[in-house]
Amino acid sequence: MDQTAKIALGSIVVGVAVLALKTVAYLLTGSVALYSDAAESVVNVAAAVAAFVAVRLSAAPPDSNHPYGHHKAEYLSAVTEGVLIVVAAAAIFNEAYRAFLDPRPLELTPLGIGANLAASAINAVWCLLLLRRGRTLRSPALVADGKHLMTDVVSSIGVLIGIGAAVWTGKAWLDPAIACLVAVNVLWSGFQLVRASVGGLMDEAADDATVARIKSVIAANADGAIEAHDLRTRQAGRLTFVDFHLVVPRDLRVAEAHDICDRIERALHDDDADTIVTIHVEPDEKAKHAGIIVL
C-alpha cells in the first residue's frame, strides 16, 4: 500500500471517530444544528471510503483496456463526494424545517459541547494534513477530501456560535436557522468539488505556471531543432500529459532527431517525474514561426 492509500485509509478512521463524537454531541443537546454537523460527518466517512477505493484503483498499472493508466479514478471519487454532499444538505434542510415547525429546547451540556469541540479539532488537524500531503503527492482525491473537511471545520465553528446565540437570546428558531446556513455551506463546497473534478475528467489543461515551465524546459533542451509548436497538456490525477510538434532541419538524420527528443523527454521528466511526453517530429517546411523558440 503506497503513501497516498495509507493517508486515504487514515481518513476513514478519522471520519468514523469524528462522526461518533458529533453524534454524541447531538444526542446530548438535541440541537438541530449539531444534527446537521453530524450529518455532514456521515458524508465525510462515505467520501473517505470512496477516496480510498479510488486511490487504490488509480494506482493500478496500465493494462490492455486502459493503456494510459487508471489515474482519473480519483476524479470520480471527488464527483461522488459532491453528490453525497447534496444528499446530506437535503437531510439537513428537512430536519431544520421540522424544527421550525416544532421548536425543541436545547440542553447545552459541557460533555455535548466538549465532544463537538474535540471532533472539530481532530478534523482541523487532519484536513491540514490532507491538503498538504495531497498537493505534495498530487492526489485530487486527498485534496478534495481535505477541502471538504475544511468546510466541515468552518461549519462546526458556526454551529457552536449559533447555538450559543440561541441559548443566550432564548430564541429557539436560531438553532434550525444555523442548520440551514450549514446546509448552504455544504452545498457550496459540493459544487466546488464537482466543478474541479469535471475539469479533470474533461482533460483540462495544466495551469499557466506549469505550461510556462514546460515551454521553458523544451526551449532550453531542444538544441539542434528549429522550433516546437502546437503544445498541448492535460491532467490525469498526478500525471501531466504533454504533446507537441518539434520542427527539425529536413536533412537531419532520424537518429539525430531521436536524440533531441530523448534529451527533451529526460529534461521534462527531471523537472517533473510524473510527466508523460509525446513528440511529433516534422521537417522544416512545417515550421509555423510561432510557439516555442529553441534557445
UniProtKB/TrEMBL annotation:
Compartment(s) of residence: Membrane
Main location: membrane
Domain Cation efflux protein cytoplasmic, chain residue ranges per copy: 207-283
Any one Gene Ontology BP term: intracellular zinc ion homeostasis
GO molecular function: cadmium ion transmembrane transporter activity; ferrous iron transmembrane transporter activity; zinc efflux antiporter activity
Transmembrane segments: 7-29, 41-61, 73-93, 113-131
Domain Cation efflux protein transmembrane: 11-202
Membrane topology: Multi-pass membrane protein
Domain of life where this protein originates: Bacteria
UniProtKB keywords: Membrane, Transmembrane, Transmembrane helix, Transport
Family: Belongs to the cation diffusion facilitator (CDF) transporter (TC 2.A.4) family.
NCBIfam families xrefs: CDF
Protein name: Cadmium transporter
